[in-house]
Amino acid sequence: MLTLYHTHQDFPIFKYPYNSIQQQHDSLNNQNHFNITTHQPQNHNRTLGESQQYGIGLTQANAVWALTKSKPNKYRNTPVKVCIVDTGYDGSHEDLPKVGITTTETGYGEALTDGDGHGTHCAGVIGALGNNNKGIVGVNPDPTKFSFHISKALNDDGLGTATSVLRGIEGCIKSGSKIISMSLGGGPKSPIFREIYEEAYNKGILSFAAAGNLGLMQNDYPASYATVVSVGAVGRDGNRADFSNYNKQLEIMGPGVDITSTYPGGYGSLSGTSMATPYVAGVAALVWGYFPECSNQQIRNVLAVTAKSMADGSGGGVGGCNRRTGFGLVQAKDAFDLLDMYGCDAGGNTNFVPLSKGGVGGCDQPLADVSKLTPRPTTDLQQTSFTPPGSGCQKLFLKLLTDRYAYEISWELKRVDTGEVLNKGPPDNRKFEDETDYNGPASGCLEPGDYEFSILVLCCFV
User: Fold this and answer.
1) Closest CA to 233 of 295, 283, 277, 284
2) Contact 85, 180 (CB under 8 A)
3) CA–CA separation, 252 and 409 (whole Å)
4) How far is it, in rounded angstroms, from Cα 162 to Cα 266?
5) CB 295 within 8 A of CB 347
6) pTM here?
7) Beta bridge partners of 181
8) How far apart, in Å, do the first and last CA atoms of the chain sit?
9) Is 233 helix (H, G, I), strand (E, B) or coil?
10) Cα–Cα–Cα angle for 153, 97, 134, rounded to 5 degrees
11) Which residues participate in catalysis according to the annotation?
12) Pairing mode, if any, of strands 184-185 and 179-182?
């Protein structure tokens, strides 16, 4: 039974913007090029259907798309419901799902409207439609593999109260959501909020929240509750953004600088831990959908143990984790591979009673010792990109700076002796973004041998 929470000490809660929105009001679909408002306009008249943002490659989301598409019979998806607690959702946007959406309203109007734009922006990061030849693509581009619950807990100025956010979270729990994404914060530590997040955790829900944007070492809430995953931000170079808050509860990082996404009236660019949060929540949904038997605790732990470490010994932590960057940058394919190899055991112990006792947060989150796990039996062993410590695995990483005609660029990796194409990109006929740095894995573990890596440029001369 759901416990209803009310507070007699209401306090303001607000979205976490970092810079002002830069909105493009012209529909991207009505032009023959894609203008990203944080860069110079691209005045060439070459067709670009939809743009793959840098965060997709940085988090390895596209590598999961490619793998699951190549083996649909092996990798079957169970749709995951993601609850966004924010300013609403532009239900008429051309690049967002329109079916299967459930809502909670808290006194700020209809949930499928968004007078601010912040919630719509976060929704696009998680699930902007793919393969529709429009705009951008989200971490989860296939709307048949996930669904949204929209809790409109902030008003058209991006402001709410403790009461409105509590009601929004209650709506998430009632809706059957598996993931809650909260790009908001404000107010003091509250036993009422602590209890509702613990209840959500005990019901199998995994919650994510923005760490805050002052660049300071401080605890912001709800991100700093033990049963909420605190998310910091990185830039397109994969390094921590200067504005990203840090503390002992910070657990994981996601792309959060110059993030172009859906926005009422078109598309816009924002920076902040608000943008990093839906990236990590989106990766959780992407991975969890293929391993629905795993618990929220196990998915949380797998995301942490496979994150790309950013620790340099200066952040006050040990091993691959510190208080400035947590366990590091979320890596979808590495998390997928670890679960594919070891099953849910990769997520560690789930015998906590109640389950929320296992939610500690930050570098103290109790993870599995991957070196002691035994691979599960399989007749189709998939080459993986996650490298257990000490394995000696060799991988190829791609660092690519695109020009103003990025849609002409593709790449492939093949084995010389057999001619077998091992990997290629960008996957699913999506396009690179113009004038953008890409940095990420181009292969899984490679056996000794000769390989050929080619960057292909297709250009038509008139």
Assistant:
1) 277
2) yes
3) 31
4) 31
5) yes
6) 0.78
7) 84, 208
8) 67
9) strand
10) 120
11) 86, 118, 274
12) unpaired
